[in-house]
Write a structure and sequence with these properties.
heterodimer, A: mainly alpha, Fusion Protein Consisting Of Minor Coat Protein, Glycine Rich Linker, Tola, And A His Tag, Chain: A, Domain 2, 3-stranded antiparallel sheet, 5 helices, B: mainly beta, 4-stranded antiparallel sheet, 31 strands
């Protein structure tokens, strides 16, 4: 009993074509991957307004007289080589006419450069002014923290935080209490000149010594309060409590 | 309707949440004492009377030191001041020295009549807080200064001080245990009983005009009531057995005491004439030392119903008994604070007792004394101080401390055995 095996495979020609096609595909893929310029996907650009981030200056953003632009660094004159000797001088001395033409060219070049610089600077100033005007217009009545028109009461306002830091500094030297967990909530009103005109105890645990310590803190700290931003009255609440004393 | 409510809630809730957070916290560590400057008393007629100057200074300094919130400063100048009124002296030296408050005082003597004038100032504001002028006999100097010290406490803490209160106590200075009365600082001792017997457990009526105490002068420990200003005395409970540890109710109309007329020590209620109103405990164990809560709704007492003496609390009608102390093998003599937030008691430790304070719910059990053996704690009328007797110096004596156990100071004078103090309201 014998079997005759019948090969059912494609012939050499088909195998060769397939192999060639695969190799070519790989070749072009690698060439494309290595040498073709990659398309650059540009993501969204976020601009951070560094000027108006909350800073230590409580009056940041308050309109004021325009400050002076920083002066440009003086252009340094190129040092001329000192005359070394008469011989060298005699050798290198050009004719007077040639020297005059060269000076004229340099002067014209300087004039053109100065004109270009003036134009560029004017464009920058104009752009900055436009941006500032847009900000002022956008601020309106309810401005953002640190912006012109802001009242210092907006979220993240640095004026309210600045007042708190002044209060905390003094509170460290005046804190005194007689009950376990005293707490006082004070509504503070500061007029446009930075003077405390209102001090209202909204909530208190009725610790007289603590209340008096808070009152003394505010009056002492008030000596260092600057005027609120926006030239308006500032009103905000502060909760005074001993550090690390829980309500329980 | 429900839909409208939900709509309103949805509209208002962000505003409410926003409103809750519109404040900033200001915190600081520590708890400093107020710097209190005391200027030397000035003779407003010119010259100086050292006896009065020293008397005023001593009383003022003792009271304010014990008070707690103050740190006293020595006199800063003042000798060149023209007077003690605003504008007659300079705040600057006191400001520089860091004073928060300043007491200026002046006096005039005319024969035996003394006029004392006190002014308390806020140094930072340069503002007068309180000013008082008192006129009395020169013998009343200490009382006058105590009175102004009460006023200082009122102005600064919001509650009058207890410095004009008296302390009644038991003393063996004549050989027998008699009841005495003295200023809270140990001066002006007066003897109240002279029966040559044993007298114990004095307790002031809420108005401070009467005391009740137990005396063995008729052989049986009976309860007596004595009017302090007239000296009138009458037995109010002379039932068979003991009639001890009487305690006035906060309204002064009832007295809780321990009686054993039925064979066992139980707590009863009587009125001020001695008529029995109710029996509060009914237990085969010994129940003694009742102490009223300031609102009169509860009574703390000692009972050994669980084997050893412990502190229990019950309703004023005898119901709702619950155990208060769970630590210590022997706890006795509870005393409820005037504000109702703490209960003092004595715990046996070693060969003696120590004073503890605990919250009425059983939490916050805190030891207040450690030196010697300390017993019989009683609150001052304002709850700021505690009077107690201690054997730390050998013989038993009356001491004072603040409610947190600080500032322990002996006020007993002499070397007799003094015990069972009780502090009256202001006279």
């Amino acid at each position: 009993m014998s079997h005759t095996l019948k090969r059912n495979e494609p012939g050499f020609g088909w195998m060769f074509l397939c192999s060639t096609a695969i190799h070519l595909a790989c070749y072009f893929f690698l060439v494309e991957f290595h040498f073709a310029p990659r398309p650059f996907k540009e993501g969204p650009v976020y601009y951070v307004d560094v000027v108006n981030l909350p800073v230590a200056n409580p009056r940041a953003g308050t309109p004021s007289s325009p400050g002076r632009a920083p002066s440009r660094p003086a252009q340094q004159e190129m040092a001329l080589p000192a005359k070394s000797s008469l011989k060298a001088s005699a050798k290198s001395t050009p004719p007077n006419q040639k020297s005059a033409a060269s000076d004229e060219t340099a002067r014209q070049f300087k004039a053109r450069m100065a004109k270009i610089e003036r134009e560029v600077e004017a464009k920058h100033v104009s752009a900055a002014l436009d941006a500032l005007q847009k900000k002022v217009a956008a601020a309106g009545n309810g401005g953002r923290a640190g912006m012109p028109g802001a009242k210092g009461t907006e979220a993240g306002s640095d004026y309210a935080s600045y007042i708190r830091s002044r209060l905390t500094d003094v509170f460290k030297t005046t804190i005194s209490f007689q009950t376990k967990s005293p707490e006082v909530m004070v509504k503070l009103t500061i007029d446009r000149n930075g003077k405390v005109i209102g001090l209202h105890f909204e909530r208190s645990t009725n610790d007289r010594i603590f209340e008096e310590a808070v009152r003394r803190t505010i009056l002492k700290a008030a000596q260092t309060f600057p005027p609120p931003p926006g030239g308006e009255k500032f009103e905000y609440s502060y909760r005074f409590a001993p550090e690390g004393v829980s309500k329980k | 309707m429900k839909r409208i409510f939900l709509t309103l809630l949805a509209i208002l809730s962000p505003a409410l949440v926003h409103g809750q957070q519109s404040f900033l916290d200001v915190t600081a560590p520590g708890n400093r004492q107020l710097q209190l400057g005391i200027s030397a008393p000035k003779n407003l007629n010119g010259g100086q009377n050292p006896e009065i100057v020293n008397g005023v200074n001593d009383v003022l300094r003792f009271d304010m030191t014990l008070a707690g919130p103050f740190s006293l400063m020595s006199g800063t100048g003042g000798s060149n001041d023209s007077g003690i009124r605003p504008g007659e002296f300079n705040f600057a030296p006191w400001k520089v020295a860091g004073a928060d408050l300043l007491v200026k005082s002046g006096y005039r003597v005319s024969g035996s009549t003394l006029t004392l004038e006190f002014r308390l100032y806020d140094v930072f504001k340069e503002k007068e807080i309180v000013a008082k002028r008192y006129t009395g006999n020169i013998r009343d100097l200490r009382k006058i200064v105590h009175t102004f010290d009460d006023q200082i406490m009122l102005s600064i803490t919001g509650e009058k001080g207890p410095f004009t209160g008296k302390i009644a106590f038991v003393s063996k200075r004549t050989g027998n245990k008699e009841i005495y009365l003295m200023d809270y600082d140990g001066y002006n001792v007066q003897r109240l009983t002279r029966n040559g017997s044993i007298n114990l457990n004095p307790d002031f009526s809420p108005n401070g005009r009467e005391i009740i105490y137990t005396s063995y002068k008729r052989k049986n420990p009976n309860l007596y009531r004595r009017e302090l200003f007239t000296g009138t005395e009458a037995p109010i409970s002379a039932r068979r057995g003991v009639n001890i540890t009487g305690a006035y109710s906060p309204d002064g109309k009832r007295i809780a005491l321990t009686m054993s007329k039925d064979g066992n020590s139980e707590i009863y209620l009587i009125d001020t004439t001695g008529k029995q109103l109710a029996r509060l405990t009914n237990n085969p164990a010994i129940d003694v030392s009742p102490a009223w809560s300031p609102d009169g709704s509860h009574i703390a007492f000692t009972s050994d119903r669980l084997g050893r003496p412990q502190i229990f609390i019950m309703n004023a009608d005898g119901g709702g008994v619950r155990r208060l102390t769970t630590s210590g093998a022997y706890n006795d003599r509870p005393r409820w604070s005037p504000k109702g937030d703490r209960i003092l008691y004595c715990r046996m430790e070693g060969n003696g007792f120590q004073i503890y304070a605990i919250n009425p719910d059983g939490s916050g059990d805190t030891r207040l004394t450690s030196e010697g053996s300390n017993e019989h704690p009683r609150w001052s009328p304002d709850g700021r101080f505690i009077a107690f007797s201690s054997k730390r110096g050998g013989k038993e004596a009356i001491y004072l401390m603040r409610a947190d156990g600080s500032g322990q100071t002996r006020v007993s004078r002499g070397n007799a055995d003094d015990s069972h103090p009780t502090w009256s309201t202001r006279w």
